[in-house]
Amino acid sequence: MRITRLYHPEELRCGDTTFLDVNASNHLIRVLRTKAGATVTLFNGDGSDYLCRMLDANTKKTQLIIESKILVENESNLSITLIQGLSRQDRMDATIQKSVELGVDKIIPVICQRSNIKFPKEKQVKKLQHWRNVIISACEQSGRCVIPEITEIILLPELPPLLNSQALKLNLNPAADNRLRDIENEKQAIELFIGPEGGVNMDETEFLGKNNFEDIRFGPRILRTETAGPAVISALQILWGDL
Fold first, then answer.
1. Three-state SS for 44?
2. How far apart are CA 175 and CA 60, in angstroms?
3. Residue 145 belongs to what H/E stretch?
4. CATH level 3 topology of 79-240
5. I need a labelling partner for 175 at 20 to 30 A (CA). Which of 24, 183, 222, 240 fits?
6. What's the whole-model pTM score?
């Protein structure tokens, strides 16, 4: 029987009791129909799972006792940063969800000249919180115990200060000559740029080149933006990571 796994952003220690918030409590009791006495796994992003036992079925403030701690070692040996050109909500959500499941460490959402959607500053805080919730949900599902970072939404010219000078930098470009398997890599840090739905223009491609991004193509077909990131991350894991 599968044990329910929930994110709980508080310090967790064996022998202590803790209370879920109203949303988690309601989901656990009313949606999943979990009963008092059942085992629930909590994680807070510290790299471990905590096995807990439900002490009640309070839909507003479920109480659990923390019975054991399990160190989880399922993070990739690669540190992958996805630099994703901003796309529409459903596509951006899908990209974030699948990338987290595949082991990405960091996501940088970037507004490009051909991005089909732009967020005014007052809406960006709400959008970032929504994306963080998508990340947490993906971690709950995939068994990850480390929460990937997502940065604020930036413009492409604001990217260089966020880059790791020691990382392999790749830009997915259907017109590139080199394929991913042509790249020789011994670096553990990889920064992958994926353009938005409308792609990137020549000026943006040149800008990425000046910042040490190497153009690569990924097969003979042009992928949708929400497919491209997860597809390339999968290939990176197969070539140099944990798959």
1. coil
2. 55
3. none
4. Alpha/beta knot (3.40.1280)
5. 240
6. 0.93
Please give the Cα distance from 16 to 27 (Å, whole number): 22
The closest alpha carbon to 78, from 203, 210, 242, belongs to: 242
Give the CATH superfamily of 4-71.
Hypothetical PUA domain-like; domain 1 (2.40.240.20)
166 φψ region: left (φ > 0), alpha (ψ -120 to 50), beta (else): alpha
- Phi, psi torsion values for 233, nearest 5 degrees: -60, -40
Please state the separation of Cα 221 from the chain's center in Å: 25
Could you tell me which of 80, 124, 74 has the C-alpha nearest to residue 104? 80
Which has the closest alpha carbon to 105: 165, 192, 181, 223?
Answer: 192
pLDDT digit string, tens, across residues 204-232: 999 999 999 999 999 888 899 999 999 99
Query: What does the pLDDT read at residue 209?
Result: 96
pLDDT digits (tens, 9 = 90+) for 73-115: 999 999 999 999 998 878 999 999 999 999 999 999 999 988 8
pLDDT lower than 70: segments of the chain: 1, 118, 243
CA-closest candidate to residue 171, choices 131, 207, 221, 197: 207
Residue written as tokens 């994306």? Answer: 131
